[in-house]
């Protein structure tokens, strides 16, 4: 039985379109809305596209400044990435689409257990170039630090909660 789908679309603060993909709606729990993508799901942005090398689930938490992707069996280019968290504006979910602005910072948990904040150089450049307001800069940095701490401490949803959702794909 085919599940209902929604488009998860990321934009940039300057109005540019960023990565987007069609994902299956898996359900909702206390952590937020869970979406699923199968191996081979296309992810695209203007001028390029790629196929995701593994099954994955995406969590859109309510009113949070991030979106998390959990890879089932890391493979391909993302073979060392277990969890990838985009720091974003809170996501707006409407009929058939979820939209958020990507704020460049990413929190990554590698399969080795190493946790890092990535793309700080891009965040700094866009803070200047796109004239991010001070409150947005503060919210993004606080979100990155909070997510890193949650992953380090194994707090929900970074406590293995995603496995039940991965099993639905």
Characterization of this structure:
Helices cover 21% and strands 44% of the residues. The chain is built from 3 helices and 11 strands; from the N terminus they run E-E-E-E-E-E-E-E-E-E-E-H-H-H. The radius of gyration is 15 Å and the shape is globular. It has helices at 120-129, 134-153, 162-166, and strands spanning 5-11, 17-29, 32-37, 42-45, 48-51, 56-60, 66-71, 81-88, 92-94, 97-110, 115-118. It is α+β, with helices and mostly antiparallel strands and 169 residues long. The strands form 2 sheets. The chain has a 7-stranded mixed β-barrel with strand order 1-2-3-6-7-8-10. It has a two-stranded antiparallel sheet with strand order 4-5. The termini are close together. The model has no long low-confidence stretch (mean pLDDT 94). A hairpin with a 2-residue loop joins strand 2 (17-29) and strand 3.
Structural features:
single chain, 169 residues, alpha+beta, 7-stranded mixed barrel, 3 helices
């Amino acid at each position: 039985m085919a599940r209902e789908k929604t488009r998860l679309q990321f934009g940039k603060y300057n109005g540019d379109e960023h990565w987007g993909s069609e994902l299956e709606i898996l359900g909702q729990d206390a952590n937020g809305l869970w979406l699923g993508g199968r191996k081979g799901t296309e992810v695209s942005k203007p001028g390029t596209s790629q196929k995701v090398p593994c099954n994955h689930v995406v969590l859109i938490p309510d009113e949070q400044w991030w979106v998390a992707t959990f890879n089932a069996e890391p493979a391909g280019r993302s073979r060392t990435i277990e969890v990838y968290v985009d720091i974003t504006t809170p996501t707006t979910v409407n009929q058939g689409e979820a939209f958020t602005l990507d704020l460049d910072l990413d929190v990554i948990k590698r399969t080795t257990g190493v946790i890092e904040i990535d793309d700080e150089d891009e965040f700094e450049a866009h803070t200047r170039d796109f004239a991010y307001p001070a409150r947005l800069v503060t919210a993004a940095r606080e979100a990155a630090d909070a997510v890193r701490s949650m992953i380090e401490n194994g707090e929900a949803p970074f406590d293995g909660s995603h496995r039940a959702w991965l099993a639905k794909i």
